[in-house]
Every structure is written in structure tokens, then in C-alpha cells.
Amino acid sequence: MLLKNKPADVFVDRHNGPDDAAVAEMLRTIGVESIDQLIDQTVPAAIRLKKPLNLPAALTERAFLAKFKKIAGQNKLFKNYIGLGYHDTLLPAVIQRNILENPGWYTAYTPYQAEIAQGRLEALINYQTMVIDLTGLEIANASLLDEGTAAAETLHMFHSLSKKKNATKYFVSELVLPQTIDVLRTRATPLGIELVVGDHRTADLADESIFGAILQYPAADGQVFDYTDFISKAHDHGQFVTVATDLLALTLLTPPGEMGADACVGNSQRFGVPMGYGGPHAGFLATKDQFKRVIPGRIIGQSIDAAGNKAYRMALHTREQHIRREKATSNICTAQVLLSVLAGMYAVYHGPQRIKQFAANIHTLTRTLETALRGLGVEQTNEFYFDTLNLRLESAELAQALKQEAEAAGINFRYFDKVRVGISLHQNTEIEDVAAIVAVFAKVLGKEVKAPLTQAEEVEVTWTKKLIRTSEYLTHPIFNSHHSEHEMLRYMKQLENKDLSLAHSMISLGSCTMKLNATAEMIPVTWPEIGGLHPFAPREQAQGYAEIFRDLEAWLCEVTGFAAVSLQPNSGAQGEYAGLLAIKGYHDARGDQHRNVALIPASAHGTNPASAVMAGMTVVVVKSTEDGNIDVEDLKAKAAQYADQLSCLMVTYPSTHGVYEETIIDICQTIHNPGGRVYMDGANMNAQVGLTSPATIGADVCHLNLHKTFCIPHGGGGPGVGPIGVVADLAPYLPGHVLVDADGRTFGAVTSAPWGSASILPISYAYINMMGGEGLEAATKTAILNANYLKARLEEHYPVLYTGSNGRCAHEMILECRHFKKAGIEVEDIAKRLMDYGFHAPTVSFPVAGTLMIEPTESESKEELDRFIEAMISIRKEIAEVEAGRADAKENVLKHAPHTAATVLVHDWTRPYSREQAVYPTEYARMFKFWPAVSRIDSAYGDRNLICSCTPIEQYVDAEEQLVPTDKGPSY
């Protein structure tokens, strides 16, 4: 017997679902002899790569984790007192283990199917309530990408609402965080909005060209101002005021809402979320009730289900970008759900008393530090402060000596200028840390600390009375009931049990690529070497991150065929926006500022036109043909019509209809001929990697959804990462950052942190490392195999709307369901009925209304695909019963879906179908039943009666009296 020595545990076999036997059977069903034959019939030969991907050889999980431990070990974990919106904090272990590290939470999809997402939705209601209470405003969303982009969203919102027709200026306090000003400038410039940066104490608010303002509270240098008079004067002049703030500080400081602010933005990172070298962190936006119909981002609202029970869902969909398209004022698609959940749970676990105590401890330690430093002769210039001291040294030489001594002691301060030093304390600061800081100053100043530092038990707050918070917050029982770990654990588990995730079954959403997020990929995310770095720490302390960035950028360049990549955009929509700005920057630099027309296919995702408008472009829609492809003749006509004004084409490839359009090279050349550029939406890169590439088809820029193709989990609706790749002549226009020299780039930032959501990049880094080039190509082929297997099994039951010239689909397909309307069955009925079978619905009514778009991904096994097929065929039979009149048109199993346990556990069952048919339609459902938490939700009721925060149930005894008054909404 001969024994061969080769790796026994290859990661690609763990990632791809079907084994060799399953693949052979699936190929027979499809009617081809090999995967390569299937690929040849599916992917046009003209766009195939001429050589394999040149990527490092695949590593086993064990080998990768050993390698990555060494890389992460290059990061230096200093004590960080830099502040600037990022602070060390402590995520309670019970939350880390049971949410952040739990696939039941991090693999769930955006809660569009609310009946099987009640746990996450309740967690997000908690988050919204926390933000509303602390800011003193009336409504909040859940959530935005970070503080800078939240601030930019209010700029857009208030610019669109301003009654001053010619107002194009926005006042920005010079004490707003510098990275926020950077993002604001990036977002304002394409729209012709001028930022007026200055001192809020001397601002000329009588200027009629100013439509709004933004302030920082506490300010970037730590000062705390009472903005009441400023806000009042701004309102007198018809201006809106946003206040960027710190949620932890608001436990002690008067909230901006009580000062009259129109909106409040910020970052909830301080509530237990690791710094992670800049992200991901949940930004927040709270505002007045009058703006509820225009506030960007997702709002979670309370409604009722078919049984009249309270149920949560995403509210006010009609104001979202995918509905409004080029009329949208925001392109938000991804939220930061997982991070919002963490921050909200932090508030639930600690409650108002503990959180206030954290703030009190920070302030008293800061006071102790100030006293000690004054004793050494150091000047502190902030009259009122919460956690930040602004220190002025006698000379630049002394400040430089301090920096050297501090870093030698493993400490980072903020250096405002040559003589001013900032120190921001945080939740994890202890008296020993304060003593270490004082010791550094003493050594540099050549002075002696005469007595050991002690923390005073009581400190009198010296702020003016107007700055001291007197209003209550977090009064709802949810924030006052789960303070023991046992109770908290049970509460989180109860919520988890209400949500369907990839831990239960496949989520076959077209265009969303819900694939395996392997545990080995996730492990490094919670390592201190990854989570513990401040984004503005000296670059030499983050050499591990530097290596990750270099490698990942190079690998993504190889995958896309492009010359350069920026990792900064922290969502797919942000990547779109950054890509369009790169194109705009290129045209502007050549003197072609008049090139502002973006051609966008009618089938494009709603973020495409929204992003184009935000980038200052004019959208011209290109028709689609009956077979779902771009109408090339219409494209050529419009490219010729707008030749002198043409900026770009936005195109998704394969198409949103799940087809590799064979004319794509001609399409790109049509745009290039008159001087335009091609932006490719990377949503469907899972059908490209290793087989073709954006550069090969002729694109100039492409964003990549790392939260899709490259395995970062969806987290219930975020975090996401949307880096962009570009050809060489667009590289100078990639995003830069005001505080960090990102490879010499000076173009404006699109997110607050220099490298966006840096702490989750290790997930994609691990995926590529463990798959290698051959593995990535195999994943793409398997995704196409799985999709065509589903098509072969389902097309006799549900017509497949679009296919390629050989009758193949790409990695996804659209099932025709519109003809069921004749029997009164809507596509929504199918989506809800799938819940009874234990499955999340495919994408509903996109890109074609009344259809289902299915993407199985490569990670699903044949067994799981067959279970899903069985469910879909069974549902088709149930529809046939209605069509034939054997089932009642209204009282049938589809119209009443989903069925909860409470629905069927009634004494008198009066429906014309059995309980067993309702809840156990297959043997698998009987054995592994997932019970929806609520019956079908009445969305319209929730929009008419908007409730978006936790409210005690006793206030709803008389529902008619307690409901929020209905309004008709905006007239758009």
C-alpha cells in the first residue's frame, strides 16, 4: 500500500458546499459533462481571463491563523489618549461571546422579512431609544456608517429642506472633528455647497446664503460650550443646526435636543465597540419628529401583525433610495446593524446608573489629571470639559520631547500643534494610568511628583448650571431589567431565537451573496491586536495592519485587473460614490468640468442613480431590452447625444438579471469613444472572480462588496465594506484623509477613518489566503453550478425570466411569479410561506416587480439546495390548489402565512386547511421547525402610526387614543 503525503484538510472543500459525488449528480441534472463545459456555455469566451489568478498558495486554517498571529503581532498596543471620536472601551464578555462571535447574530440578513427578524428589530429599537433618550430628540435611525457620514447626511437633508432657494453655504465650527470636516467637504463640493469653517462664537448667521450649521459637543479640543443662543439665532435666520456629540458625555451634559438642535449625530463606538483601527462603528442620527419622512437611513418602527400583536419592522420604505432613485437625497444601503446591536446591548446590560458612573469616573479622573499637571506647572486651557484636557507647553522642543517620552512609555497623546497637547481619558482608564501620564510629564519637565496620586471619591462639577443634565434617560424597563449576566444572557438568547440566520438554513437572496462566513475567518476580529488600535495612532505602531492593507490591495488588484485599490469606503454605496468621485476628479483635472452625465440602465440598483446625483451628476436612463439586457442601440444613441457631456456609464456585471451580457465589451467601448469612463457595480463579483474581471470587460473603476463576495458577514444589515479598484489614470483621485497620509493621496475622504472598517478586513484577508487563486476560481464555478442546478430543477414550476444565449444563468436567476396574480397570489405570499418551511425568501420584486431573484452561492450543499427546491415545488402545488379552486382564494395557507405557534395552538381551528399543513409542510420542517415570532405584519399600519422607540405597554391600553396622528407625508 502506497501512502501519499498531501494536505488532508483543504479549506476550499470546507467553503464550497457540494462534494465530488454531488457535483456529478448536479451536472447530470443540468445536462453537461463537466463544470468547465457549463462555464464555457455560461461565460462569454471574449471576456474570459487568459491566465489563472496570481495569488499566494492556499493555506490551511491552522497555517493561516499561525501566520496571521505573527502579522497581528506587529501591531503595538499602546495606551491611547488621542480622542477625536475614538476611545478605548470594554465590550462585556457576555455580549462579545453571545452576539459578536455568534453566527446566529452575524450571519442574518437585513430585516426586510420582519416576521423572522423580530430579535434584531427589537435590539435596534433599543438602540434607537438609547439615542433618542441621550440626545433629547424625538426620532433616530438605526443606523449610519460613522460620525462623518452621519454629519454629511444632515447636510444633505437640511439643504434639501431649506426654504432659502439660493442658500448654498453651510457653517462648520472649526472645532468639529477634523475627519468630519473632511467628509463634509467631500460631500458638499459636488453639489456646489460651500463650507464656511470658523469660530461659532463670531459666526455671521445673518448671511442669507447660509442654510445650516454644525457644531461639536464636546468640541474637538475638549471644550464644552452652551450652544443654546447660537441655535436660537440660527433659527431666527431660517437655518437648521446639527450638533455632533458623544453619547457617553450626554449622561452628564445637557442634551443637544434641549438646546434646540434640529439634529444630533455621532458615533456609538464608545458603548462597548472596539476601536478597531477606525471601524466598523455605528453612526447615529437623531432629529425632530417633523423630519421623520426625510431622515436618511433605516428606521425601525412598531406595527401590528395579523393577530393584532405588537410587531417590529423597517418603517417608511417609500423615502428610501431604492424607491426614489435619482430623486433620493441619500444613497444609504448598508447600515451598521451588528454594531448598533452591540451598542444597544451595552446600554441594556449596564443601564443608566452604570453608564452614568462610567462617565463620572472618566470626568473625575480627568479632573485628577488636570490638578496633578497644574501642580507641575502645565497650563490647561479648557474652561469646561468632560474627558479631554488641552495643554499648552512652553516650547515645540518640549512638546517633541514629551512625545518621545510618552511613546517610549507606550502612551499616545494627541498633538494639536507644535506646543499644544490633548489628552482624552476613557472608560478603561484607571488611577494607575493617570499616574503613568503624570510621570511622563514630570520626567520631561525635570520635576518630581511629590505624593502618590489618589482618585477623589467626590468631585464637584464646575460646569455652568445650563450644561448640567437634569433630564432622565434610559427609563424604559428594558434598560433596567437585565443587569445580571444570567438575565442578560437569557434576554439575548430569547432575541436570537426569533431570528432566522445562516445558522438555520440557506438565505438565497439574489444580488446579496449570503455565503459561508467561516469561523477561522472570523476569529481574528476579536483579537486585541486587531481591535485595540486607535485609527490616528502613529503608523509605525500599526505595521501589522500595514501588511494586511498592502497584501489585500495587491490581491484585489489581481482579482479586478486594476492598478490601484482604496480600502476606505465602508459600504457598497460608499464605494459607488467614491468611484464616481474618482471619475469626476479625473474629468475636472483635465478641464472637463462640463462632463456630468451618467448613463444608468433602467435595471440598476437604486443606489446607482442616488450615488450619481450625490456626486453632482445628471442621470440619463438607458432602456433595457425584453430579455433583460442593456438596449445597446439606445445606449449608443444616448452616448452620441451626450458625447460632450458624458462622464460615465454605471453598469452591473453580470447584469442584475443574472446574465453575462455578451455585448459588454462593445458597451464599454461605446462609452470610451467619446471620452467617458465606465463604472462597474461589483455586486455580482461572485460570478467573476477567477473567470473574468472588471478590467477585462473594459471597466475603469469598480467597487467590491467584501460583505458579499469576500465573506464579511452581513450582520443583519451591516457592517459592509466597499473598496474600489481603478485603472492607473484614476488612481490619483482615490480617497485620501486629512489626518493620515494614505499613500500620498490628498483627494477628500469619504469616511471618517482612513481605512474605513479596518478591523473586519482580516475576514477577507483570511478568505483569500485560505482559498488561493485556484480556490477562488473554484468558488465562482461552484456558484454558477449551484445556480444552474436550481434553475434546472425549478424552471418547470417557475419560469426563469432571463438566460444567456445557451440557456444558462449566471450565479443567480429571476423566477417569474406575476402570473399567479390571476389566482390572487402575490409574490409576497410566497415569501411569507417560505418561512413556514424554514427558509428566508429570495429577493422579492427586484429588479422586476412581482418576481423572486435567487442566488444560492457556492457554500450551499446539494442537500440544502434540494430542501429549498422541495419547499418551492411544494409551494407551487399550494398555488395550483388555489388556481384550480380547490383552495379558497382568500382563506388559504399562503395568504395566512407565516403561521406562528400561537396561531395553530387554538382550541377552535376554523381555517379550511389543517394545522399540520400550516406548520409542518415537509418532513424537514417537522424535524427542524423554525417558528416565526409573529404573524404577517401590517406595514401600512406601522407607517400611518409611526412608533420608533421602546414604549411601555401600559401606554397602549387604549390604542385609538395612543396612536401617533397620521400624516400624508411629503409630496415627492
Brief synopsis:
With about 950 residues, the chain is α/β, with parallel strands linked by helices. It has 32 helices and 26 strands.
Helix content: 25-40%
Cα(first) to Cα(last) distance is 77 Å
| CATH homology-level superfamily of the domain at 96-330 | Type I PLP-dependent aspartate aminotransferase-like (Major domain)
Number of strands: 26
Q: For the record, what CATH class of the domain at 96-330 applies?
A: Alpha Beta
Using the coordinates shown, work out and report the CATH topology of the domain at 96-330: Aspartate Aminotransferase, domain 2
Number of helices: 32
Query: Strand portion, in percent?
Result: 5-15%
Question: Could you give a short account of the major beta sheet?
Answer: 7 strands, mixed
Unreliable segments (pLDDT under 50, ≥5 consecutive)?
956-972
Widest sheet, order of strands: 2-8-7-6-5-3-4
- Return the structural class: alpha/beta
Shape: globular
Mean pLDDT: 94
Please name the CATH architecture of the domain at 96-330: 3-Layer(aba) Sandwich
| Multimerization state | single chain
Q: Report the C-alpha radius of gyration, rounded.
A: 28 Å
Describe, in plain words, how this protein is organized in 3D.
The protein is an alpha/beta fold and 972 residues long. It is built from 32 helices and 26 strands. A seven-stranded mixed beta sheet has the order 2-8-7-6-5-3-4, with helices on both faces. A seven-stranded mixed beta sheet has the order 16-22-21-20-19-17-18, with helices on both faces. Strand 5 (210-217), helix 10 (228-236) and strand 6 (240-245) form a beta-alpha-beta unit.
